[in-house]
């Protein structure tokens, strides 16, 4: 990345020194900070995309225990990787991790590459993640900009433009690079992120304890709650979705979502979005026929689940169904299985489907108790 001068009177050293002193004193004890293994650092950085530290930490520890090396991850079945990732969300991260591990084995001899350009060539690694890995794992002087760093830089340097705009993004990356010290670039990058996570909060930041309070231009002008500039959020759409727990001979039908779509590679109960003018039952008949090619009889409701994704919400209606006719086939999915209800928990399902599984198994258990 070509260097551009910082458009500010602030001295980089006036930011580096107090920030690193603060980080040395206040840095959280996180599991991925106890290792210098580039593989483990890579895993943590992928998990921390779109996920809070507190949520990612237990997943990280389970993941590196199960797959302690790049080779172990590359040799694993994707289903096993997705099952271990279950509940963490944004499953394309897990699929890309698996693909990238295989590429690291075949292209780089099982060693995570050190350079930014080589890291960017791997699935799931963008500019931020490449900067994080190269600086933290390999000590390279590479910048990074994420949401937390954006907030810190916009306030410290009083950047008033919308951070989503390309010209502002370019300025932020230039600032991040100019600030990087020759020594301890990884620690400095982590300190910037830590400051945004713990002190430079989106609303009402506790500026009185910030190590940069004497240099922050936003604080000086009383603009810390107005920066970064925010776009007006669009209304979040809500979709009605229906699924069928289809039973036949003591087993239920599940199918695997297409690998290239939302929640790709996860298992689910057949179904889909309700169209305008359809009843829930009509939508379920149509979706099951289009997805797996069979006809069903729709029975009682099992559960209704409200679930939020990043850009939309769903209300998911699950019905107990029985198989009527037809041969199951993969029309809108990658695989089909008839499984015992008690085995459903062995498969990786989206979070909303897991709530249905819990309701289904609870109902079966209550039925068994009632018959005794």
Properties at a glance:
Nucleoside Triphosphate Pyrophosphohydrolase; 372 residues; 43% helix; seven-stranded mixed sheet; alpha+beta; 2 domains; single chain; 14 helices; Endonuclease III, domain 1
Helix coverage percent: 40-55%
Rg: 25 Å
What structural class do helix, strand and pairing data support?
Answer: alpha+beta
Q: H/E element string?
A: HHHHHHHHHHHHEEEEHEEEH
Count of helical stretches: 14
CATH class of the largest domain: Mainly Alpha
Distance between the termini: 71 Å
Query: Looking at CATH, which topology of the largest domain would you report?
Result: Endonuclease III, domain 1
CATH superfamily of the largest domain: Hypothetical protein, domain 2
Strand content: 5-15%
Number of domains: 2
Shape: elongated
Mean pLDDT metric: 92
Chain oligomer state: single chain
Spans with pLDDT under 50 lasting ≥5 residues?
1-8
The CATH architecture category of the largest domain equals Orthogonal Bundle
Fold and architecture overview:
With 372 residues, the protein is α+β, with helices and mostly antiparallel strands. It folds into two domains: 12-220, Endonuclease III, domain 1 (Orthogonal Bundle); 238-371, Nucleoside Triphosphate Pyrophosphohydrolase, CATH 3.90.79. Helix content is 43%, strand content 15%. It is built from 14 helices and seven strands. It has helices at residues 12-26, 38-47, 53-66, 70-75, 78-85, 92-108, 116-120, 127-136, 147-156, 166-179, 185-198, 217-220, 280-292, 351-371, and strands at residues 238-248, 251-256, 267-268, 271-273, 295-308, 313-325, 335-339. Strands 1, 2, 3, 4, 5, 6 and 7 form a seven-stranded mixed beta sheet that branches. Strand 5 and strand 6 form a beta hairpin. Helix 9 crosses helix 11 (185-198). The longest helix is centred in the last third of the chain and has 21 residues, at 351-371. The protein is elongated and about 75 Å long. Residues 1-8 have low confidence and may be disordered.
């Amino acid at each position: 990345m070509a260097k551009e001068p910082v458009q500010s009177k602030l001295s980089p050293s006036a930011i580096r020194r107090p920030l690193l002193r603060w980080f040395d004193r206040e840095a959280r004890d996180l599991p991925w900070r106890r290792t210098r293994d580039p593989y483990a650092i890579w895993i943590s950085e992928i998990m921390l995309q779109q996920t809070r530290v507190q949520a990612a930490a237990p997943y990280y520890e389970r993941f590196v225990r199960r797959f302690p090396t790049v080779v172990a991850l590359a040799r694993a079945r994707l289903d096993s990787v997705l099952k271990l990732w279950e509940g963490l969300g944004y499953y394309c991260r897990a699929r890309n991790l698996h693909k990238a591990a295989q590429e690291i084995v075949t292209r780089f001899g099982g060693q995570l590459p050190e350079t930014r350009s080589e890291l960017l060539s791997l699935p799931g690694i963008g500019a931020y993640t490449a900067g994080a890995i190269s600086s933290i794992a390999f000590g390279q002087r590479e910048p990074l900009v994420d949401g937390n760093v954006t907030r810190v830089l916009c306030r410290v340097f009083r950047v008033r433009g919308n951070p989503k705009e390309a010209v502002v993004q370019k300025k932020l990356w230039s600032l991040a690079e100019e600030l990087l010290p020759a020594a301890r670039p990884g620690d400095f990058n982590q300190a910037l992120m830590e400051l945004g996570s713990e002190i430079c909060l989106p609303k009402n930041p506790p500026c009185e304890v910030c190590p940069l309070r004497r240099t922050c231009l936003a604080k000086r002008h009383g603009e810390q709650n107005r920066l970064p500039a925010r776009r007006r959020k669009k209304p979040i759409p809500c979709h009605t979705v229906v699924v069928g727990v289809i039973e036949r001979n003591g087993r239920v039908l599940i199918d695997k979502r297409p690998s290239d779509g939302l929640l790709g590679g996860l298992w689910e109960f057949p179904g889909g979005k309700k169209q305008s003018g359809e009843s829930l039952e009509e939508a379920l008949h149509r979706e099951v026929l289009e997805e797996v090619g069979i006809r069903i009889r729709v029975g009682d409701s099992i559960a209704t689940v409200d679930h939020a994704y990043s850009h939309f919400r769903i209300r998911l209606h699950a019905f107990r169904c029985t198989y009527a006719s037809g041969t199951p086939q993969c029309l809108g999915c990658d695989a089909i299985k008839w499984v015992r209800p008690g085995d459903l928990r062995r498969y990786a399902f989206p979070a909303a489907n897991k709530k249905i599984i819990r309701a289904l198994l609870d109902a079966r258990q209550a039925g068994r108790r009632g018959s005794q």
